[in-house]
């Protein structure tokens, strides 16, 4: 029984932590009154429980998301000839900058141009 109780307390801790983080984000980014912030946080926690309750969920650290954001900033900073400057700014090798810019260019091209063969 101790194992079930321990798992239950970790689950409650997770939901409480989710609520606390939601409250902190809403307070920092909105001007909602405190009662609305707490109510919204509770609704989010309840929605997560209803949607994902009982499932084993893995939360990734989001490295890919961070890299995507960095690459978009790099693309915005790119002027066509400042590869070395970008390498220094984003702590990448020159070859890494060329590779990232080539990948970004391909993604943008795919977004802008429809596939002629429907693939």
From TrEMBL:
Keyword list, A-Z: DNA-binding
KW Transmembrane (keyword) present: no
Protein name: DNA-binding protein
Organism: Sedimenticola selenatireducens
GO MF terms, alphabetically ordered: DNA binding
UniProt cross-references to Pfam families, sorted A to Z: Mor (PF08765)
Keyword DNA-binding: yes
Positions of the Mor transcription activator domain: 10-116
InterPro entries, per database record: c-mor_Regulatory_Protein, Homeodomain-like_sf, Mor_transcription_activator
């Amino acid at each position: 029984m101790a194992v079930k109780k321990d798992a239950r307390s970790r689950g409650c801790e997770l939901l409480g932590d989710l609520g606390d983080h939601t409250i902190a984000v809403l307070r920092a980014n909105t001007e909602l009154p405190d009662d609305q912030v707490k109510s919204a946080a509770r609704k989010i926690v309840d929605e997560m429980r209803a949607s994902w309750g009982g499932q084993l969920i893995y939360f990734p650290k989001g490295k890919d998301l961070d890299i995507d954001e960095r690459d978009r900033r790099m693309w915005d900073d790119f002027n066509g000839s400042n590869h070395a400057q970008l390498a220094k700014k984003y702590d990448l090798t020159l070859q890494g900058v060329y590779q990232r810019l080539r990948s970004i260019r391909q993604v943008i091209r795919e977004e802008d141009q429809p596939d002629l063969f429907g693939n």
